[in-house]
Amino acid sequence: MHKERIERVVASMKEAGYSQIIISDPVAIFYLLDRWIHPGERMLVLYIHEDGTAKLVINELFPQDGDVGVELVWYNDIEDGVAVLSEHMKDGEVIGVDKNWPAHFLLRLQEIFPDRKYKNASLLVDKIRQIKDEEEKEIMRESSRICDAVMEELIPWVVKGLTEKELDAKTRELFAEHGVTEMSFDPITAYGRGGADPHHVTDDSKGKRGDSVVLDIGGFYKNYASDMTRTVFIGEVSDKAREVYEIVKEANLRGIAAAKPGNRMCDVDLACRNYIEEKGYGKYFTHRTGHSIGLEDHEYGDVSSVNEEIIRPGQVFSVEPGIYLLDEGIGVRIEDLVIVTEDGCEVLNHVTKDLIVVDEEA
């Protein structure tokens, strides 16, 4: 159990006016208890009261070894798990519920306590998870170091005649060679027109001379995700593709420069977006600039033009501007992860962002 993290949750509950909260998200439970429990369709709840009481309500099908750090409340398949939970809840007008609790459990609790108020309390834990401690930062550095190594080894394979699906498989193979067997997301390994379509699904296409190749990869190391993108070219690069590449690279650098305490998340997005618009490609930058990352590849707190949240030290997020010219088959995205420091940010990815043309004879 991470006692200090639960204490931070309790402090946030008091500040927000919640007397008790129900946490069901397995990722949040792992963050607080250091236990992975995947309950499937069965109810799993970490119940926390503002007085510091914490109980894990769990089905008997999921025995736990050793001290979990909180009281365990067991139920079985012939019992009403929500009723069991209700017996351990204390008085309080407002019950906070996280965003992932299935509706049928919530509706049952509302039947038991019809006069109480129910509110979405997800942000209490999400905002705490947003600020990484030193142990988390170090794991994420190592996770990104592995991702860097895989990217360096993957780039030469873009000229080996592999299909996109085969290049995807090669990505997973290289991660496994570095001890990472679970991907943060399905790799994006897209040639030419595929890379110019942000909604493209990896297929059996092969790359050809002059193609841009978008490589967006990441994996889980000690439960923490990596995520990075590099775009390279096969054999040669056209003047138009080179222009687009250099614009995206500069936008990435400007976004990173804006990633510092006191700025807003939207300032990072706009640092990238305004430059791309200035260069005449604004309508071809079709997604937000980034996302927070940690135990999940996409966590609370996006890097978008509408997120005015103030950036704080300890946040980790991506900076990934892109330009996608579908009709011309040119797609370029460059992505790095950053850890926000006291006076700026630390970039976690170190694979060069200089334009790379991969020799077809490599």
UniProtKB/TrEMBL annotation:
Keywords: Hydrolase. CDD domains: APP-like. InterPro entries: Creatin/AminoP/Spt16_N (IPR029149), Creatinase/aminopeptidase-like (IPR036005), Creatinase_N (IPR000587), Pept_M24 (IPR000994), Peptidase_M24B (IPR050659). Residues 138-342 form the Peptidase M24 domain. Its EC number is 3.4.-.-. The keyword Hydrolase applies. Residues 5-131 form the Creatinase N-terminal domain. Pfam families: Creatinase_N (PF01321), Peptidase_M24 (PF00557). Gene3D superfamilies: Creatinase/methionine aminopeptidase superfamily, Creatinase/prolidase N-terminal domain. GO terms for molecular function: hydrolase activity. This is Uncharacterized peptidase SA1530. It comes from Aedoeadaptatus ivorii.
